[in-house]
Amino acid sequence: MSDLEVQAELATQAARSGQPRRLGLAEATAGLLAVFLLVAAVTPQLLALGDPLGIDPLSAFMPPTGAHVFGTDESGRDIFTRVVHGTQYSLVIGAAATAIGLGLGIVLGTLAGMLGRVVDFTVNRFLEVLFAFPGLLLALLFIVIFGPGVATATIAVGLSTAPGYARIIRAQLITVRSAAFVEAATVLGRTRWQILLRHILPNTLAPLLVLATLGIGQAIVWAATLSYLGLGAEPPTAEWGAMLSAGRTYITSAWWMSFFPGLFIVLTAVTATVLGRSIDRRMRHA
Amino acid sequence: MRRPARPRRLLAATTGIVALGLLLAGCTPAGPNEPAGEPRSGGTLTYASGDAEPSCLDPHVGGNFPQALVSAQYLESLVSRNDAGQIIPWLAESWTPSDDGLTWDFTLRADVTFTDGTAFDAAAVQANIAHLQNPTTLSSTGYLALGKVKTVAAVSPTVVRFTLTEPDSALLESLSQPWLAMESPAALERSQDENCASPVGTGPFIVQSWVKQNAITLVRNDDYVSPPADAAHAGPAYLEEVIWRFIPDSASRYAALQSGEVDVIDNAQPDTIVQAKQSDSIEQLDSPRPGAANRIELNSGQAPFNDVRVREAFIRSANVDDAVSSLFQGTATRSYSALSSVEGTAISNAALFDYDPAAAAELLDAAGWNETDADGYRAKDGVRLSVEFPVSTNQSIPAEQSVFEQIQATAKETGFEVNLAPMDLSSWYAALASNDYDAVSAPYTKVGPDVLRILYHSDSIVPAPSGYFANLAQVNDPEIDALLTTAARTTDTDERSSLYADAQNRILEGFYLLPLYDQQNHFLLRGDVQGLRTLPTVAVPTLYDTWLNR
Amino acid sequence: MTMTEPAAALTVHNLRVGFGADPVVRGVSFEIARGECLAIVGESGSGKSVTARSLLGLAGANARVGADQLELGGQTVLGLTDRAWRARRGKDVGLVLQDALVSLDPLRPIGREIADSLRLHTTLGAAARARRVLELLDAVGLPEPATQVQKLSGQLSGGERQRALIAAAIALDPPLLIADEPTTALDVTVQAQILALLEHITRAGTAVLLISHDLAVVSRIAHRVAVMHDGRMIETGRTEQVLGAPRHEQTQRMVAAIPADKPRGTRLSLSTRPRDAASPVSADSTVLANSTVLDDSTVSAASTVVLEAIGLSKSYRRPDGSRHLAVDDVSFALQRGSTLGIVGESGSGKTTTARLLLALLPPDRGAVRVFGEPWSAASEKTRRGLRPGVGAIYQDALGSFDPRWNVAEILTDALGLSPGLRQRRRAPQTTARLLTLLDEVGLAAAVLTRRPLELSGGQRQRVGIARALAGRPEILICDEPVSSLDVSVQAQVLDLLDDLQRERGLSLIFISHDLGVVQHVSDEIAVMRAGRVVESGPAARVFAAPQHPYSVQLLAAVPRLPA
Amino acid sequence: MAARLGGAIFVLWAVASITFFAVRLIPGDPAQAVLGGPGSQASPEALAAVRTEYGFDKPVLVQYLAQLGRLATGDLGRSYALNQDVGPLVLDQLGGTVLLAVLALALAWLLALALAAWSTRGGTVAARVGSGLEIVAAALPHFWLATSLIVVFSIWLGVLPPISTVGAAGLVLPVLTLAIPLAGFLGQILRESLLAALESPFVLSARARGESERGVLWTHALRHASLPAISLSGWAFGSLISGAVVVETIFARPGLGRTLLTAVTLRDVPVVIGVVMIVAVAYILMTLLTDAATRLVDPRLRSE
Question: Where would you find the membrane-spanning parts of this chain (chain A) (predicted)?
Fold first, then answer.
């Protein structure tokens, strides 16, 4: 299993047990956070006026105060500003990695799910092999070959999530393909193409929204991990993982430097999880 | 298995601290806690190094700073240096150069044996030099330091004679370095893998075991007799055992010290030094490394820095003082010299490095960079004034990378676009080798002012077969070349100093480099650790006089 | 059976159970004597299971249980602590649930499950417990107890594990045994055996409280019947009395809904009238007469075969690689305007046959012909032209609808129009056709915008029928169309199918495990067992005088109301 | 079993092939890549030695077969950065990581079980709190959690060592860092499946026999609830390996993760491949173990 499959499984589980339409406190909070994060990503200036790279050596290492709610870093940059502006970075990296993983997953999963036994067998074996590079291993292998950096880290995260997407999409395709309503459509005299377009594809693709939402949270955490390890974005870029990495040096004297970027990573991941599950539940009970 | 020959950038490979140093604590031998009482024997001291774990404990092989740090505990050199910068006896009792400076006779101590029982004598010295000069040893630092040594002969068991190809005023300084320390000839006979795992020397400790990625265990050499002349006591070391750990993460390292898990840490970060000053239980030892200061070299070999006005403009546009004071929080002092402040021959000229954006702007106007592009950067003939600045994340500590970021920010105000490119060591070397840089910072440790020849003689622009060259500023000035070559042959101290002073002035006035601070070398220790000091050669700590007041 | 036992094993007076604000049981009173079997019958949601569970103190953590009197063996159990309840459960009262596959822990050998009761309530040692378990298994009629005791419930047949479950419940010979739908998931023949076992237990002196939705089933062994509806006990009395002369309207409805032995064409549902409102209920007798005539004329040349199965065989590969012959040389013919019932127990090959008839599977051997044309042998492209003539109704109506579509979209699609159009942009004539379809199956226009998930089981099946009708088919293939419905809903759906068949002259293949249903709807019947048709012929003849021993056994096992 | 073994060998072969061709994807001279990338100051002799050892001068197919041959005999090549054979180096580091992973897995199970058992019994509020805790725990990145734990327990409270030490105390924080997020995932699975199990008819049967709540939990429900969680073990292993990269680096523990990260930073290709191969082998073993554990808990699978 991949992280994504586990997330998807948990979402399914939660959707099964949860109440259909109630807007929970968690969902409402997650929704507000998502709006905040989107605003931060699209127009960061709306939330934080300053320059995320602008230095002010004289006010370095300031703890959180009214003027700097999240404190300042070693060069006197305002951490709140950097965290807000970093949202764009993290979301774009997360979205790009998810797009790569999802794209590859769709291609592989569709091949396996639609093209008959031989292709299915081959793709399945291939995926099985990729799963033997668990977690970040595939990403690290990719980075050691193509060198570190934001672009490679993004591709690496995308690549390492692709097998998970592929397997979910394949399973979904196979479930939908053999669903009773597909047989019912055959009995109504629908052609293969009509069935594919009207039933199989929509019912396979709809859950991808859930997957992508869950996946983006995962991708952000992984990309931040790579940055933290010095294999992705580099300081002074206002990327959360890179900020944490820079803050690690000063952890004994300036905890706020690593606490707030980390907090935003966690909040984003939790938001993605809660929203993904909420969408899942709504789609099932809609 | 050849370790890529990297001309001594002894810098600390992974987390190398670059340094600048405050002379405040200096290298006073006494432990920081004064009412210490009589030294006591016994106990285990845990040392946590932030430097990379060496791949070989024999500093002949390769030769970098992490090796020097640990090998100083079990290997000894022929000579040492005292706090005043004078060469003092160690395994060699005395030495005499010939008048032409081409022959040196060293008289060795007769009472020293290696810890495997092999006698230390002239033959052993011969074997060590041969080992260093043997290409299969893959020595880099030691090999280069012995560049002028033609032959080594045993005159008697206690007298060994070095014959040189040309006079070398830096010979003694070279021999004082840990990378040229003496090892048991019998041990050297073993395979390199074996010798790397457990080198045998004459030092106060013996390598007992080495668990990779975790710790090296050193035990006391009870038969030890050969402390350097400036040691505080004689006889065996006080400590029974030393655990030498590798903790690359600086925060973990400091926290480990705070919690008493370890007794001494190196590569202390500025913020932890400040914290330590407020702590009763933690003391600080600051010992800047010799050789070059930490500085940014400006590549004068290509545009835009082939124009001295642009170089000066860049230097004038960089607000280094504010950066250093905010980031190093008083733990590092601004340098205005090419050399480390511990080098007696260092010339400092603060006036050349004032932060003066107005002057910088005028210089750029004069040099023709008088256009302003859409992003606010200066340009000439439509070409933006940009400076490629590859940064090795292995060699520049986070605080230093932040200094570069602040320089980037202040230089932008004058119109320079500084493109900081943090990269891994391998890519960094690649960028330098392909001349793909305009500014770069590369620490360099060597005992004595001869480092200037390595860094600024035009010969050093020619890349070694490996592609590396030390003259990163690409200074190509026949007058500087002449001064440095002459100085390297001049044994007269005053004359040598004056030659190096001339050379330094000319280098500084050419605006080839922007000095930042000494190569930082801060140690933090538990308050009950007494008698820790660094060897005044390359400022590595020695635990010989150290004892535990607990 | 000791000293001065009160006559009643259980006395319940004014039992009330509620969850949150909703009362589920609203004042129920009854008692059971030793050696007596009382059946509580009701449809889903009537509160019968909650009542049963309250008697064990297991109504649930958030249930509010109250009663004026609640006595087990003469001792009140009102307000017992959890610990005190535990001491009584299993010892003073046993519980048997539906489907032992999940009612016995599927991960533990049945022997351990049975021994648990002994372990919890006796001081017997392990060896003594093991002996007792064997005795119990023997007592419930499980063959070879010594080898079965190590098996998991999944390794036993449905009947065997239900016996094991009963063994666990009676391990301590409790004075009261509560059996909640104990035979519901079982095949009829096995159901008959389990009922016999429960009857035997009752005779031995145990009070048995039988909970069921099926009046016919309980009529076999219950001495008294209590009918529950909407949390109340609406009628109680001796079994013959309640079933023979039901007083309450709901009971009457339930009795009427039992299809077994009701002649073809008899209306089962009281609440719904024939859709042709003009024709009085008595007209049914005419229909019945007609259909009898039709029965008689099945041999005449006037009838034509619309669908024909000729020597159909189909096998599957099992996970272990061996082949399983699911359908073995099956032949039959469906006459125009008639209903062919296919009946069989689980694993008899009914469903595979349905899929073969719908050409969703190609047969290994044999062929299906429709309207005299090749059907299974034709290419899907050719077949597609004929498909509108063959409709299908499925057991799982919900699963047969695309979950993203609402009823309007489902039916628009079935009409052969593009379903993508939302209601707003739908042509008025399309809407008119949709409303006609809904009207035909007795649904209101309001369901158009609903998704199947939001509909009740009966409504879903009606939408399924409407969809099948949209293509104006001549043949309808119904695979267990009513088996997941409550009896009264089942009655309505069966009546609807009957009406439609008469109005449209439909020919039906009706597949079911329920002989009563099949008997009621079929003109012709085919009895399947292990993939083969063991007997076929006119329904009246087969039911009156079965030839094959299996048919005889099957018919004998059908729960019927006492005559 | 034979099929499983065959599958395992196939996966290993494929992993070896992928890594082999991956190294050929490195732009430029493969010998240079093996020696640490484009900027490594490799001498011509070193390059020549590597070319001979890896046979880069021979046709790709020959190189490939030779590589498979070496791997089959357990020869993982040599690290030029560390001056050591990769096989023994990687095996040396394996123990520390395995210890860490096993302890973390055990603790994660304990935490998850405790949280699941508490939140299924404590009513709606406990279930919400439990579920919230689990979701947040599952979202905690290792690097942030490790740093935060160090700040709180080592720097502020000073009760636990921030680095790995000889004693057990040094294991506490690393194990917690790895276990907490994992417990978040396991807890969610466990709680949901525990709820399902507690609602199931066989639990009602057991209660009707007079079984206590504890008996219901231990004899019946937990066993069922653990099945889906056990099937996560393969994934959990991967997550622990990724976590070990971070945790071993921060807590200065010897182990595969730290070796891997160092090797990636130095672009020490032979070591990276060596670690990847070992992890692949371990992953395969883990899936076999998971199968065995599932069979142990679920006797239904044994009879097949």
Answer: 23-43, 91-114, 126-148, 208-233, 253-275
Domain count along chain C = 2
Q: What is the CATH number of the domain that holds A127?
A: 1.10.3720.10
- Examine residue C472 and state whether it is found in any structural domain, yes or no: yes
**To the nearest whole number, what is the mean pLDDT of chain A?**
86
Chains touching chain B at 3 or more Cβ pairs under 8 angstroms?
A, D
CATH 3.10.105.10 residue ranges of chain B are: 294-517
What is the per-residue DSSP string for A97-111? Answer: HHHHHHHHHHHHHHH
pLDDT per position as a tens digit, A118-177: 888 888 888 888 888 887 888 888 888 888 888 999 999 999 889 888 988 888 888 888
ipTM above 0.85? no
Q: Are C401 and A184 within 8 A, CB to CB? A: yes
Q: Are residues B255 and A252, on separate chains, in Cβ contact within 8 Å?
A: yes
Average pLDDT over residues D209-230: 87
Is residue C22 in a domain? no
D249 inside 8 A of chain B by CB? yes
The C-alpha of C167 sits at a distance from chain D's nearest C-alpha, in angstroms, of: 12
| Whether residue D41 has pLDDT greater than 70 | no
Q: Is residue D227 over pLDDT 80?
A: yes
In chain B, ranges of CATH 3.40.190.10 domains: 44-287+521-548
Contact D139 A221 (CB under 8 A): yes
CB-closest option in A126, A132, A135 to D284:
A132
Q: What residues contact residue B383 under an 8 Å CB cut-off, 6+ apart?
A: none
Interface probe for C, chosen from A19, A175, A177, A181 (most Cβ of C below 10 Å), is: A181
Chain-centroid distance, C-alpha C190: 14
Of C173, C192, C226, the residue at which a domain comes to its end is C173
**Residue C66: helix, strand or coil by DSSP?**
strand
Of A2, A26, A145, the CB nearest to D25: A145
Residues of C in contact with D217 (CB under 8 A): none
pLDDT band at B33 (very low <50, low <70, confident <90, very high): very low
Quick one: closest CA in D to C86, which residue? D210
Q: Is A53 on the interface with B (CB under 8 A)?
A: yes
Residues of the domain holding C403: 306-557
Q: How far is CA B299 from CA A204, B357, B415, B455, B475, in A?
A: 59, 21, 18, 12, 8
Q: Which residues of A touch D237 (CB under 8 A)?
A: 134
Query: What is the rounded distance in angstroms from the CA atom of residue C333 to the CA atom of residue B111?
Result: 116
**Closest chain C residue to the Cα of A206, Cα to Cα:** C404
Neighbouring CB atoms inside 10 A of D303's CB total 9
CA distance B233 to chain A (A): 37
Q: Note the pLDDT of residue D33.
A: 67
C320 burial type by CB count under 10 A (0-12 exposed, 13-18 middle, 19+ buried): exposed
- Residue C521 in any domain: the answer is yes
Residue C142 is predicted with a pLDDT of 87
The last residue of one of the domains, among C133, C155, C173, is C173
Q: Which domains does chain D have, with CATH numbers?
A: 2-75 (no CATH), 87-301 (1.10.3720.10)
Question: Tokens standing for A187?
Answer: 């009995």
**Strand runs (DSSP E) across C449-554, as ranges?**
475-479, 507-512, 524-529, 532-538
For residue C427, being part of any structural domain is answered with yes
Is residue D37 pLDDT above 70, yes or no? no
- Map tokens 């997957």 to a residue: A211
Fold of B294-517: Dipeptide-binding Protein; domain 3 (3.10.105)
State whether residue D278 sits within 8 Å of chain A by CB.
no
C249, two tokens? 């309207």
pLDDT above 60: residue A179: yes
Question: Number of structural domains, chain A?
Answer: 1
Domain with residues B44-287+521-548, CATH architecture: 3-Layer(aba) Sandwich (3.40)
